[in-house]
Amino acid sequence: MQDIFKGKNILIMGVRNKWSIAWGIARAVQPLGANLIFTYLGDREKESIEKLTANMDNVSIYPCDVSSDKELDDLFAEIKEKYGVLHGVVHAIAFAKSEDLQDTFVNTSRDGFHTAMDISAYSLLAVSKRAKELMTEGGSIVTLTYRGSEKVYPGYNIMGVAKAALEASVRYIAYELGPSNIRVNAISAGPVKTMSARGVKNFTDILGVVAEKSFLKRNVTLEDLGGTSVFLLSDLSSGVTGEIIYVDAGYNNMGL
Fold this sequence. Notes:
By secondary structure, this protein is of the alpha/beta class.
């Protein structure tokens, strides 16, 4: 296991700070030999990633706004020039306007709906399209979703709809990229205290309910999610694709 990712180039998109799920994944795969490629949006994220990776070897950092086709093209052109081949992608990107999370769902603005769907769902398609060209040795694409895609969590609003679209996209992309030996899966994570989660109303209440009612009687950790990501990004999951894998301490199986 120590060198399971030796010589593998893995792109990680969505690290904002040390509490990000994407950072938990990076911490899990980096000691196993991976060359990590990070993207950032804005100077604050760049500074955060530079601090987090200061003691890591084999790391590259590039700017990328996934709402811009040009920036996506530039990113993958730079990755191709430096690395040639890509073996894994972690897509941990989602966004909705705060007003659309604080108001009722039926009051979601048209622009807010488009923004959430573009950043949270379409971006996986845009990234996968470009990653395919560099995954000449096969590969694995992992994205993040949440149970709000299929059940109502008051306050999750438009993000629930966007995550539903993301999960459908996982299946369609997995079908089309399968012949190229590229696997596409999603981790449906239990609630985690990330910066994005703070924008969801009643998030603290959700944490409390999951800790009380989940099979393991606790919330999940970044280490839990990192471990599952190691499995999905590596050849250990060579026969797994198009799946939504729950890492939520068993909560999704509870009826009440």
